[in-house]
Amino acid sequence: MQRKFGAAGVCVLFVLATLAACGGGGGGDGSAAAPQPENLAAAAQPSGNVAGFAYVANQGSGNVSAYAIDTSTGALSEVAGSPFAAGIGPESISVHPSGKFAYVANFGSANVSGSVSAYTIDASTGALSEIAGSPFAAGTLPVSVTVDPSGRFAYVANNVSGDVSAYTINTTTGALTSIGAAVAAGFRPNAITVDPSGKFAYVANFIGDFSGNVSAYTIDASSGALSEVAGSPFAAGLDPQSVTVEPSGRFVYVANRQSADVSAYTINAGTGALSEIAGSPFAGGIQLFVDPSGKFAYVATGSNVSAYTVNATTGALTGIGAYAAGASPYRVTVDFSGKFAYVANRGGNDISAYAIDPANGALNSIGQAVAAGTRPTSITTTRTIR
Fold first, then answer.
1. Could you report how far apart the first and last alpha carbons of the chain are, in Å?
2. CA-to-CA distance for 210 and 241, rounded, in angstroms?
3. Looking at residues 232-255, what average pLDDT do you find?
4. pLDDT tens, residue by residue, 203-223
5. How does DSSP assign 261-329, residue by residue?
6. How many CB atoms lie within 10 A of CB 118?
């Protein structure tokens, strides 16, 4: 029997086709986004961090690739059992700040609702095991997931339903429990992140005709509930794809795909409101990530990886250079040691790895790209503390 779809169904089918063709939103977390968890790696970290594991959400093959990071060279070695099954269209992956759990936003299909897959992480091997009760329900077409720095709350940006799902995290099991009804965001939220203080959340929205904005929220410290900030949403560029808060928590960066630039803002520490900084927007691309030191930023542009210095006083970006990657570099992250950068090449189905020059932020290729799944669209790392 031929299946018939109403207007909403046709909309979902259209967006799913678009995501399959161009990778859609997502990020970290973040980011991304940020945060990003794909966004959390942008938060300030305690001393003693060394490289741990890297995880990649493969949108096309519906799984997660896992790798051990060589602490000396940064080289990636696939974990035994990898790749690990996820839902339909895994678009974003975020790791709990404890390093114990991982969360994946699956955008679903016309017949299968979007969801969040949750896993425990084996601290010795990096292997993933799905948590009891996973996958957990989300809104329509979830594309980005992030975890707050306290590890008590998780947030998911739902692209088609135009809202954010919020959850509490069981810190023993990693299971998610919905906080309540989803909170409205923009027309097509693509990414979500939480600032390092855990006080504010930011969502990058596509709002039609490729324009965009950023929704800002305060986070209730007890319940995790979101309340929109006065003046939100704040204007961004064309088709914003990721949102990141740098480690000091003073600046927000939004990468705008269609305008190929980065909108940069200062954060009002009391209210969470955003003010665009002088010189913004800066040249950019699809997704931006700030290293743990807060000194350098890296942007996946779709053709290469661009590097920038971050002005610690103003937040302004100054270009360092552009570095070759694989086919269609889509997401970039820096490990928690700050020594290595990794790029998910969506068109090449692989991961490029680099050593970071601590003096100037320049990237030096570690070697041949490492195979991932089909259409890798999100990458994040864990840390080991010694």
1. 60
2. 11
3. 96
4. 999 987 778 999 999 999 999
5. EEEEEEE-TTT--EEEPTT-SEE--SEEEE-TTSSEEEEE-SS-EEEEEE-TTT--EEEEEEE--SSSE
6. 27
